[in-house]
Amino acid sequence: MTPENRTALVCGSTQGIGNAVANQLAKNGFNLVLMARNEEKLKNALSQLDVSQGQAHQLLVADFSNPSGLKTVIEKFVSEGNRVHVLVNNTGGPKGGLIKDADPEEFINTFNQHLICNHILMQALNPGMIEAGYGRIINIISTSVKQPLPNLGVSNTIRGAVANWSKTLAGELGQYGITVNNVLPGATNTSRLSEIAGAKSLKTGQTVSEIFEEMGGETPMNRIAEPEEVAAAVCFLASPEASYINGINLPVDGGRTKCL
Q1: Which residues pair with 32 in a beta bridge?
Q2: Per-residue confidence band for 3, with pLDDT thresholds at 50, 70 and 90
């Protein structure tokens, strides 16, 4: 498949890791479909994508808190003859907190925003991947699927569900030349991490910078990641070179996670 015929849909692509992934895929020659809930932010992100190789980019507005609305948007997109070869599922995590204190509704909402929305997108897009004989489904989740993180009870639970959904799907779609993999970022310099650090700052009196430094100190690299470093892993898994890598959890955490 030539680069100019490859299209990638990246969710949550107006900021953070999703935006870094979209920009890197565009530089690699992909046509991009940006998806997020804020149209103005999407337009701004779209205007910054590389077009030097003749790429054609577009946007889709969808709110993952409304799965039925997402289903309408993606089914219309597909019905208009659009095909996607790479799907990058990426959605912001829920608020932090102890699992024992979590309201049951938090689990339901987060399950819908992550697993159900991922599933809706996969069901709409995988027939086109099968027809093309090429597909990559990449889920950006968390190292918590290997080692649960303190004070992120709801996130730990739902991320684990997404990881097992992904592994099951990898077993079903591999025969069609479609791979399904998870990228597990560690502490990464995003607005999401700033929110978590801000909440901790209010409780401890530490500054956000001190908290970031503390987080970085938990890794052998002695720093947190930049979004572009996570994007590099996603772009490799999206490439033809990763054609025999299927059903894995790939940590991008500087070696922080202690288990294999």
Answers
A1: 8
A2: low
